[in-house]
Design a protein that fits this description.
The chain is α+β, with helices and mostly antiparallel strands and 452 residues long. It folds into two domains: 183 residues, Beta Polymerase, domain 2; 161 residues, cca-adding enzyme, domain 2, CATH 1.10.3090.10. 53% of the residues lie in helices and 10% in strands. It has 23 helices and twelve strands. It has an eight-stranded mixed beta sheet with strand order 1-10-9-2-3-6-5-4. Strand 5 and strand 6 form a beta hairpin. It is elongated, with a radius of gyration of 27 Å. The structure holds adenosine-5'-triphosphate and magnesium ion (MG). The site of magnesium ion has 5 residues, from loops. The site of adenosine-5'-triphosphate has 12 residues, from helix 8.
Length: 452
Protein backbone atom coordinates (compact mmCIF):
# COMPACT_ATOMS: atom_id res chain seq x y z
CA UNK A 1 0.00 0.00 0.00
CA UNK A 2 2.66 2.45 1.13
CA UNK A 3 4.90 1.53 -1.76
CA UNK A 4 1.99 2.07 -4.17
CA UNK A 5 1.42 5.49 -2.65
CA UNK A 6 5.07 6.38 -3.03
CA UNK A 7 5.10 5.14 -6.62
CA UNK A 8 2.05 7.27 -7.32
CA UNK A 9 3.76 10.26 -5.74
CA UNK A 10 6.85 9.60 -7.84
CA UNK A 11 4.86 9.36 -11.06
CA UNK A 12 3.08 12.62 -10.25
CA UNK A 13 6.52 14.15 -9.88
CA UNK A 14 7.35 12.74 -13.32
CA UNK A 15 4.47 14.54 -14.95
CA UNK A 16 5.20 17.80 -13.15
CA UNK A 17 8.80 17.39 -14.33
CA UNK A 18 7.57 17.05 -17.88
CA UNK A 19 5.66 20.30 -17.58
CA UNK A 20 8.70 21.87 -16.01
CA UNK A 21 10.83 20.76 -18.97
CA UNK A 22 8.55 22.72 -21.27
CA UNK A 23 8.97 25.92 -19.25
CA UNK A 24 12.73 25.74 -18.87
CA UNK A 25 14.64 28.85 -19.91
CA UNK A 26 16.67 28.87 -23.10
CA UNK A 27 20.35 27.94 -22.76
CA UNK A 28 22.69 30.90 -22.49
CA UNK A 29 25.75 30.81 -24.73
CA UNK A 30 28.78 32.61 -23.32
CA UNK A 31 31.19 33.33 -26.19
CA UNK A 32 34.91 32.61 -25.91
CA UNK A 33 35.65 36.31 -25.41
CA UNK A 34 33.50 36.40 -22.27
CA UNK A 35 34.88 33.46 -20.28
CA UNK A 36 38.23 32.15 -19.09
CA UNK A 37 38.28 28.54 -20.27
CA UNK A 38 41.34 28.25 -22.45
CA UNK A 39 42.45 25.27 -24.50
CA UNK A 40 45.90 25.80 -23.05
CA UNK A 41 44.58 24.46 -19.73
CA UNK A 42 42.66 21.52 -21.13
CA UNK A 43 44.57 18.26 -21.29
CA UNK A 44 45.73 17.21 -24.74
CA UNK A 45 43.88 13.93 -24.42
CA UNK A 46 40.59 15.65 -23.66
CA UNK A 47 41.10 17.95 -26.66
CA UNK A 48 41.87 14.95 -28.88
CA UNK A 49 38.64 13.30 -27.82
CA UNK A 50 36.61 16.45 -28.43
CA UNK A 51 38.15 17.07 -31.88
CA UNK A 52 37.70 13.49 -32.98
CA UNK A 53 34.05 13.54 -31.95
CA UNK A 54 33.62 16.73 -33.95
CA UNK A 55 35.33 15.27 -37.02
CA UNK A 56 33.11 12.20 -36.69
CA UNK A 57 30.08 14.45 -37.04
CA UNK A 58 29.10 14.38 -33.35
CA UNK A 59 28.75 17.05 -30.71
CA UNK A 60 31.40 17.07 -28.04
CA UNK A 61 31.45 19.07 -24.84
CA UNK A 62 33.69 19.27 -21.85
CA UNK A 63 31.44 19.25 -18.80
CA UNK A 64 31.38 18.89 -15.04
CA UNK A 65 34.30 19.48 -12.72
CA UNK A 66 36.70 20.21 -15.60
CA UNK A 67 34.79 23.28 -16.80
CA UNK A 68 33.87 24.36 -13.27
CA UNK A 69 37.47 24.21 -12.07
CA UNK A 70 38.87 25.95 -15.15
CA UNK A 71 36.39 28.80 -14.73
CA UNK A 72 37.51 29.12 -11.11
CA UNK A 73 41.14 29.12 -12.14
CA UNK A 74 41.84 25.73 -10.48
CA UNK A 75 43.58 22.76 -12.02
CA UNK A 76 40.92 20.15 -12.87
CA UNK A 77 41.29 16.66 -11.41
CA UNK A 78 40.03 15.04 -14.58
CA UNK A 79 38.09 15.85 -17.72
CA UNK A 80 34.65 14.54 -18.54
CA UNK A 81 33.16 14.71 -22.00
CA UNK A 82 29.50 14.62 -23.00
CA UNK A 83 28.36 13.80 -26.53
CA UNK A 84 25.38 12.83 -28.67
CA UNK A 85 27.29 9.78 -29.93
CA UNK A 86 26.09 6.50 -28.41
CA UNK A 87 28.59 4.28 -26.56
CA UNK A 88 28.80 2.01 -29.60
CA UNK A 89 29.47 4.95 -31.89
CA UNK A 90 32.12 6.19 -29.48
CA UNK A 91 33.73 2.78 -29.51
CA UNK A 92 33.92 2.81 -33.30
CA UNK A 93 35.60 6.20 -33.19
CA UNK A 94 38.27 5.30 -30.62
CA UNK A 95 40.38 2.16 -30.67
CA UNK A 96 41.67 3.03 -27.17
CA UNK A 97 38.17 2.85 -25.74
CA UNK A 98 36.45 0.59 -23.24
CA UNK A 99 32.77 0.61 -22.36
CA UNK A 100 32.13 0.39 -18.66
CA UNK A 101 29.40 0.73 -16.07
CA UNK A 102 26.21 -1.04 -15.34
CA UNK A 103 24.38 1.89 -13.80
CA UNK A 104 25.47 4.24 -16.55
CA UNK A 105 27.08 2.96 -19.71
CA UNK A 106 30.13 5.10 -20.28
CA UNK A 107 33.13 5.05 -22.56
CA UNK A 108 36.61 5.32 -21.12
CA UNK A 109 39.13 6.56 -23.65
CA UNK A 110 42.65 5.96 -22.50
CA UNK A 111 45.82 7.87 -23.37
CA UNK A 112 48.70 6.46 -21.35
CA UNK A 113 47.70 6.96 -17.74
CA UNK A 114 44.99 9.47 -18.47
CA UNK A 115 41.41 8.34 -18.91
CA UNK A 116 38.81 10.60 -20.47
CA UNK A 117 35.30 9.65 -19.52
CA UNK A 118 32.93 10.07 -22.47
CA UNK A 119 29.22 9.89 -21.71
CA UNK A 120 26.26 10.00 -24.06
CA UNK A 121 23.72 12.72 -23.25
CA UNK A 122 21.23 11.34 -20.76
CA UNK A 123 17.80 12.43 -19.67
CA UNK A 124 16.99 12.78 -15.99
CA UNK A 125 14.87 9.76 -15.15
CA UNK A 126 11.97 12.06 -14.36
CA UNK A 127 11.51 13.09 -17.96
CA UNK A 128 11.15 9.51 -19.16
CA UNK A 129 9.90 7.30 -16.35
CA UNK A 130 9.55 4.27 -18.63
CA UNK A 131 13.28 3.80 -18.93
CA UNK A 132 14.23 4.25 -15.32
CA UNK A 133 13.92 1.96 -12.34
CA UNK A 134 13.02 3.60 -9.07
CA UNK A 135 13.05 2.15 -5.55
CA UNK A 136 10.15 2.63 -3.16
CA UNK A 137 12.01 5.54 -1.59
CA UNK A 138 12.35 7.21 -4.98
CA UNK A 139 15.96 6.21 -5.47
CA UNK A 140 17.01 5.76 -9.07
CA UNK A 141 18.31 2.25 -9.58
CA UNK A 142 18.98 2.48 -13.31
CA UNK A 143 18.83 5.55 -15.47
CA UNK A 144 20.51 4.68 -18.67
CA UNK A 145 18.14 6.74 -20.75
CA UNK A 146 19.64 8.75 -23.53
CA UNK A 147 18.44 12.30 -23.92
CA UNK A 148 18.98 15.62 -25.58
CA UNK A 149 21.73 18.09 -24.75
CA UNK A 150 19.37 20.10 -22.59
CA UNK A 151 18.04 17.09 -20.76
CA UNK A 152 21.61 16.15 -20.02
CA UNK A 153 22.16 19.59 -18.51
CA UNK A 154 19.07 19.41 -16.28
CA UNK A 155 19.74 15.93 -14.93
CA UNK A 156 23.12 16.91 -13.49
CA UNK A 157 23.50 17.57 -9.78
CA UNK A 158 24.61 21.16 -9.18
CA UNK A 159 24.23 24.14 -11.48
CA UNK A 160 27.99 24.79 -11.34
CA UNK A 161 28.58 21.22 -12.54
CA UNK A 162 26.33 21.73 -15.52
CA UNK A 163 28.38 24.11 -17.64
CA UNK A 164 29.40 22.86 -21.08
CA UNK A 165 32.43 23.89 -23.09
CA UNK A 166 31.60 23.55 -26.77
CA UNK A 167 34.51 22.47 -28.93
CA UNK A 168 32.85 23.87 -32.06
CA UNK A 169 33.16 27.54 -31.09
CA UNK A 170 34.87 27.40 -27.66
CA UNK A 171 31.83 28.92 -25.98
CA UNK A 172 30.43 27.86 -22.61
CA UNK A 173 26.77 26.85 -22.63
CA UNK A 174 24.76 27.42 -19.45
CA UNK A 175 21.25 25.96 -19.19
CA UNK A 176 20.68 26.06 -15.43
CA UNK A 177 22.17 29.34 -14.21
CA UNK A 178 25.48 27.78 -13.23
CA UNK A 179 27.56 30.76 -14.27
CA UNK A 180 25.81 33.13 -11.87
CA UNK A 181 26.09 30.59 -9.03
CA UNK A 182 29.76 30.10 -9.80
CA UNK A 183 30.35 33.83 -9.50
CA UNK A 184 28.42 33.97 -6.24
CA UNK A 185 30.21 30.92 -4.82
CA UNK A 186 26.93 29.08 -4.44
CA UNK A 187 26.20 25.39 -4.63
CA UNK A 188 22.65 24.89 -5.83
CA UNK A 189 21.02 21.59 -6.73
CA UNK A 190 19.17 21.60 -10.02
CA UNK A 191 15.45 20.98 -9.52
CA UNK A 192 13.68 20.10 -6.30
CA UNK A 193 16.35 19.30 -3.71
CA UNK A 194 14.35 16.73 -1.77
CA UNK A 195 13.48 14.82 -4.92
CA UNK A 196 17.08 14.97 -6.15
CA UNK A 197 18.40 13.60 -2.84
CA UNK A 198 15.80 10.84 -2.90
CA UNK A 199 16.86 9.87 -6.42
CA UNK A 200 20.46 9.69 -5.33
CA UNK A 201 21.38 10.29 -1.67
CA UNK A 202 25.07 10.50 -2.59
CA UNK A 203 24.29 14.02 -3.77
CA UNK A 204 24.27 15.01 -0.09
CA UNK A 205 27.87 13.86 0.16
CA UNK A 206 28.72 15.67 -3.04
CA UNK A 207 27.21 18.89 -1.66
CA UNK A 208 29.51 18.64 1.34
CA UNK A 209 32.54 17.70 -0.73
CA UNK A 210 32.19 20.55 -3.22
CA UNK A 211 31.35 23.05 -0.50
CA UNK A 212 34.55 22.13 1.35
CA UNK A 213 36.69 21.93 -1.78
CA UNK A 214 35.50 25.10 -3.48
CA UNK A 215 34.75 27.08 -0.33
CA UNK A 216 31.20 27.51 -1.69
CA UNK A 217 28.07 28.04 0.38
CA UNK A 218 25.39 25.40 0.10
CA UNK A 219 22.37 27.41 -0.98
CA UNK A 220 19.62 27.43 1.67
CA UNK A 221 17.05 25.30 -0.21
CA UNK A 222 19.76 22.82 -1.17
CA UNK A 223 20.95 22.55 2.43
CA UNK A 224 17.54 22.48 4.10
CA UNK A 225 16.48 18.85 3.55
CA UNK A 226 19.89 17.24 4.17
CA UNK A 227 19.64 16.60 7.89
CA UNK A 228 16.23 15.01 7.60
CA UNK A 229 17.12 12.89 4.58
CA UNK A 230 20.61 11.84 5.63
CA UNK A 231 19.20 8.46 6.74
CA UNK A 232 18.70 7.65 3.04
CA UNK A 233 22.45 7.11 2.81
CA UNK A 234 22.02 3.82 4.62
CA UNK A 235 20.34 2.52 1.45
CA UNK A 236 23.32 3.27 -0.74
CA UNK A 237 25.54 0.25 -1.44
CA UNK A 238 28.52 0.16 0.93
CA UNK A 239 30.97 -0.11 -1.98
CA UNK A 240 29.76 3.17 -3.49
CA UNK A 241 29.90 4.86 -0.10
CA UNK A 242 33.48 3.71 0.28
CA UNK A 243 34.42 5.45 -2.98
CA UNK A 244 32.66 8.61 -1.85
CA UNK A 245 34.20 8.54 1.62
CA UNK A 246 37.65 8.38 0.07
CA UNK A 247 36.86 11.38 -2.11
CA UNK A 248 35.54 13.19 0.96
CA UNK A 249 38.53 12.59 3.18
CA UNK A 250 41.38 12.36 0.69
CA UNK A 251 40.57 15.47 -1.32
CA UNK A 252 42.75 17.78 0.75
CA UNK A 253 39.84 19.32 2.69
CA UNK A 254 39.04 16.59 5.19
CA UNK A 255 38.91 18.97 8.15
CA UNK A 256 36.11 21.09 6.70
CA UNK A 257 34.41 18.02 5.22
CA UNK A 258 34.22 16.54 8.71
CA UNK A 259 32.74 19.74 10.14
CA UNK A 260 30.07 19.78 7.46
CA UNK A 261 29.26 16.06 7.73
CA UNK A 262 28.80 16.58 11.43
CA UNK A 263 26.74 19.72 10.96
CA UNK A 264 24.29 18.02 8.61
CA UNK A 265 23.98 14.79 10.58
CA UNK A 266 25.58 12.78 7.79
CA UNK A 267 28.62 11.57 9.70
CA UNK A 268 26.54 9.38 12.00
CA UNK A 269 24.99 7.66 8.99
CA UNK A 270 28.40 6.75 7.59
CA UNK A 271 30.18 5.96 10.86
CA UNK A 272 27.51 5.25 13.47
CA UNK A 273 29.87 3.70 16.02
CA UNK A 274 32.34 6.54 15.69
CA UNK A 275 29.58 9.10 16.11
CA UNK A 276 28.44 7.31 19.23
CA UNK A 277 31.89 7.31 20.75
CA UNK A 278 32.26 11.00 19.89
CA UNK A 279 29.03 11.73 21.64
CA UNK A 280 29.94 9.78 24.77
CA UNK A 281 33.54 10.85 25.07
CA UNK A 282 33.41 14.25 23.40
CA UNK A 283 36.45 16.53 23.36
CA UNK A 284 39.54 14.38 23.18
CA UNK A 285 38.13 11.95 20.71
CA UNK A 286 37.11 14.76 18.39
CA UNK A 287 40.53 16.29 18.81
CA UNK A 288 42.21 13.12 17.53
CA UNK A 289 39.99 13.12 14.46
CA UNK A 290 40.48 16.81 13.73
CA UNK A 291 44.24 16.38 14.06
CA UNK A 292 44.15 13.34 11.80
CA UNK A 293 42.23 15.28 9.17
CA UNK A 294 44.51 18.30 9.38
CA UNK A 295 47.55 16.03 9.03
CA UNK A 296 45.98 14.26 6.07
CA UNK A 297 45.18 17.58 4.42
CA UNK A 298 48.68 18.92 4.82
CA UNK A 299 50.19 15.67 3.54
CA UNK A 300 47.98 15.84 0.46
CA UNK A 301 48.84 19.48 -0.02
CA UNK A 302 52.53 18.53 0.15
CA UNK A 303 52.01 15.67 -2.35
CA UNK A 304 52.92 13.11 0.29
CA UNK A 305 51.58 9.58 0.38
CA UNK A 306 48.41 8.99 2.36
CA UNK A 307 47.02 5.54 3.05
CA UNK A 308 43.29 5.05 3.59
CA UNK A 309 44.34 2.48 6.20
CA UNK A 310 45.67 5.26 8.43
CA UNK A 311 42.55 7.32 7.94
CA UNK A 312 40.28 4.45 8.95
CA UNK A 313 42.54 3.61 11.88
CA UNK A 314 42.03 7.16 13.16
CA UNK A 315 38.31 7.22 12.44
CA UNK A 316 37.60 3.93 14.19
CA UNK A 317 40.04 4.34 17.08
CA UNK A 318 37.24 5.34 19.47
CA UNK A 319 35.04 2.27 18.90
CA UNK A 320 38.14 0.09 18.85
CA UNK A 321 39.35 1.32 22.22
CA UNK A 322 35.94 0.92 23.69
CA UNK A 323 35.74 -2.72 22.58
CA UNK A 324 39.32 -3.38 23.66
CA UNK A 325 38.67 -1.99 27.12
CA UNK A 326 35.87 -4.46 27.61
CA UNK A 327 38.18 -7.34 26.67
CA UNK A 328 40.84 -6.01 28.99
CA UNK A 329 38.33 -5.91 31.81
CA UNK A 330 37.85 -9.62 31.12
CA UNK A 331 41.52 -10.16 31.82
CA UNK A 332 43.21 -9.88 28.43
CA UNK A 333 46.48 -8.03 27.95
CA UNK A 334 46.23 -4.72 26.05
CA UNK A 335 47.62 -6.36 22.92
CA UNK A 336 45.28 -9.36 23.10
CA UNK A 337 42.37 -7.03 23.72
CA UNK A 338 43.12 -4.92 20.66
CA UNK A 339 43.69 -7.99 18.52
CA UNK A 340 40.31 -9.31 19.57
CA UNK A 341 38.50 -6.00 19.13
CA UNK A 342 39.70 -5.29 15.55
CA UNK A 343 37.55 -7.88 13.83
CA UNK A 344 34.24 -6.84 15.36
CA UNK A 345 34.77 -3.11 14.87
CA UNK A 346 35.76 -3.53 11.22
CA UNK A 347 33.02 -6.05 10.49
CA UNK A 348 30.38 -3.60 11.70
CA UNK A 349 31.87 -0.68 9.81
CA UNK A 350 32.16 -2.43 6.45
CA UNK A 351 28.41 -2.96 6.46
CA UNK A 352 28.09 0.80 5.93
CA UNK A 353 31.30 1.70 4.16
CA UNK A 354 33.00 -1.20 2.42
CA UNK A 355 36.65 -0.68 3.36
CA UNK A 356 38.66 -3.10 1.21
CA UNK A 357 40.64 -5.68 3.10
CA UNK A 358 43.99 -4.39 1.88
CA UNK A 359 43.31 -1.16 3.77
CA UNK A 360 41.56 -2.58 6.82
CA UNK A 361 44.61 -4.79 7.26
CA UNK A 362 46.72 -1.66 7.49
CA UNK A 363 44.38 -0.19 10.13
CA UNK A 364 44.60 -3.44 12.08
CA UNK A 365 48.39 -3.36 11.99
CA UNK A 366 48.48 0.27 13.09
CA UNK A 367 46.23 -0.55 16.04
CA UNK A 368 48.08 -3.64 17.18
CA UNK A 369 51.34 -1.74 16.98
CA UNK A 370 50.11 0.67 19.67
CA UNK A 371 50.55 -1.61 22.68
CA UNK A 372 53.66 -3.07 21.10
CA UNK A 373 55.24 0.37 20.97
CA UNK A 374 55.15 0.36 24.75
CA UNK A 375 57.59 -2.54 24.90
CA UNK A 376 60.97 -0.95 24.78
CA UNK A 377 63.20 -3.50 26.40
CA UNK A 378 66.20 -5.21 24.92
CA UNK A 379 65.99 -5.87 21.20
CA UNK A 380 62.26 -5.14 20.97
CA UNK A 381 62.50 -1.58 19.60
CA UNK A 382 64.99 -2.70 16.94
CA UNK A 383 62.65 -5.47 15.89
CA UNK A 384 59.67 -3.12 15.86
CA UNK A 385 61.27 -0.59 13.55
CA UNK A 386 61.66 -3.39 11.02
CA UNK A 387 57.90 -3.91 11.02
CA UNK A 388 56.55 -2.93 7.57
CA UNK A 389 53.91 -0.75 9.20
CA UNK A 390 56.16 0.73 11.87
CA UNK A 391 56.16 4.24 10.43
CA UNK A 392 52.37 4.40 10.27
CA UNK A 393 52.12 2.97 13.78
CA UNK A 394 54.56 5.56 15.09
CA UNK A 395 52.73 8.39 13.30
CA UNK A 396 49.56 7.13 14.91
CA UNK A 397 51.22 7.23 18.31
CA UNK A 398 52.19 10.86 17.66
CA UNK A 399 48.62 11.60 16.74
CA UNK A 400 47.37 10.09 19.99
CA UNK A 401 49.88 12.14 21.92
CA UNK A 402 48.81 15.32 20.14
CA UNK A 403 45.21 14.50 20.97
CA UNK A 404 46.01 14.37 24.67
CA UNK A 405 46.15 10.61 25.24
CA UNK A 406 48.61 9.70 28.00
CA UNK A 407 51.32 8.57 25.58
CA UNK A 408 53.28 11.80 25.32
CA UNK A 409 56.38 10.46 27.04
CA UNK A 410 56.26 7.29 24.96
CA UNK A 411 55.93 9.26 21.72
CA UNK A 412 58.85 11.47 22.70
CA UNK A 413 60.93 8.43 23.56
CA UNK A 414 60.33 6.97 20.09
CA UNK A 415 61.02 10.26 18.35
CA UNK A 416 64.25 10.51 20.24
CA UNK A 417 65.10 6.88 19.49
CA UNK A 418 64.47 7.30 15.78
CA UNK A 419 66.47 10.49 15.55
CA UNK A 420 69.43 9.07 17.43
CA UNK A 421 72.46 7.31 16.13
CA UNK A 422 73.24 3.80 17.28
CA UNK A 423 75.07 4.76 20.41
CA UNK A 424 72.40 7.12 21.60
CA UNK A 425 69.78 4.47 20.86
CA UNK A 426 71.53 2.09 23.18
CA UNK A 427 71.46 4.83 25.81
CA UNK A 428 67.78 5.43 25.25
CA UNK A 429 67.17 1.71 25.73
CA UNK A 430 69.08 1.74 28.99
CA UNK A 431 67.06 4.69 30.19
CA UNK A 432 63.91 2.60 29.84
CA UNK A 433 65.17 0.24 32.52
CA UNK A 434 65.62 3.01 35.02
CA UNK A 435 62.43 4.44 36.44
CA UNK A 436 64.05 7.87 36.79
CA UNK A 437 64.62 7.90 33.06
CA UNK A 438 68.22 9.04 33.62
CA UNK A 439 71.02 7.06 32.04
CA UNK A 440 73.41 5.38 34.44
CA UNK A 441 76.33 7.47 35.60
CA UNK A 442 78.94 4.77 35.67
CA UNK A 443 80.98 4.19 32.61
CA UNK A 444 79.17 2.20 30.02
CA UNK A 445 80.58 -0.88 28.52
CA UNK A 446 80.77 -0.82 24.74
CA UNK A 447 77.19 -0.91 23.43
CA UNK A 448 76.13 -4.05 21.73
CA UNK A 449 76.24 -3.76 18.01
CA UNK A 450 72.80 -3.00 16.56
CA UNK A 451 71.65 -4.78 13.43
CA UNK A 452 71.55 -2.64 10.28
P1 LIG B 1 35.57 16.21 -9.37
O1 LIG B 1 35.91 15.32 -10.55
O2 LIG B 1 36.37 17.44 -9.26
O3 LIG B 1 35.43 15.47 -8.11
P2 LIG B 1 33.11 16.49 -10.80
O4 LIG B 1 32.04 17.54 -10.70
O5 LIG B 1 33.79 16.38 -12.12
O6 LIG B 1 34.09 16.77 -9.63
P3 LIG B 1 32.45 13.75 -11.16
O7 LIG B 1 32.09 12.74 -10.14
O8 LIG B 1 33.68 13.58 -11.96
O9 LIG B 1 32.45 15.14 -10.40
O10 LIG B 1 31.19 13.85 -12.11
C1 LIG B 1 31.21 14.57 -13.34
C2 LIG B 1 29.89 15.30 -13.55
O11 LIG B 1 28.82 14.34 -13.64
C3 LIG B 1 29.48 16.22 -12.43
O12 LIG B 1 30.07 17.47 -12.53
C4 LIG B 1 27.97 16.29 -12.60
O13 LIG B 1 27.62 17.13 -13.65
C5 LIG B 1 27.64 14.86 -13.03
N1 LIG B 1 27.34 14.01 -11.85
C6 LIG B 1 28.18 13.24 -11.14
N2 LIG B 1 27.57 12.60 -10.16
C7 LIG B 1 26.28 12.96 -10.23
C8 LIG B 1 25.11 12.63 -9.46
N3 LIG B 1 25.19 11.81 -8.44
N4 LIG B 1 23.95 13.18 -9.84
C9 LIG B 1 23.87 14.02 -10.90
N5 LIG B 1 24.93 14.37 -11.62
C10 LIG B 1 26.12 13.86 -11.32
MG1 LIG C 1 35.24 14.93 -12.70
Amino acid sequence: MISRLIKRAVSSVFSSEKQQAETRPEPVVIPRSAHTVSRANISESALKVLYRLKRGGYRGYLVGGGVRDLLLGHKPKDFDVATDATPEQIRKLFSNCRLIGRRFRLAHVRYGREIIEVATFRAGHAATPEGAAVSDEGRVLRDNVYGSFEEDAWRRDFTVNSLYYDIRDFSVVDCTGGMADLKRGMLRLIGDPEQRYREDPVRMLRAVRFSAKLGFQIEAKTAAPIRELSYLLTEVPAARLYEEVLKLFLGGHAASVFRLLDKYGIFEQLFPEVAESLEDEGGDRKLLLSRAFLNTDSRILGDKHVTPGFLFAALLWGPLQRAAKAYQADGMTPLQAIEHACGGVLAKQVQRVAIPRRFSTVSREIWTLQPRLERRRGRQPFRLIEHPRFRAGYDFLLLRAEAGEPVKELAEWWTNFLESDEEARALALKAVHRPSGRPRRRRRRRPRKAPE
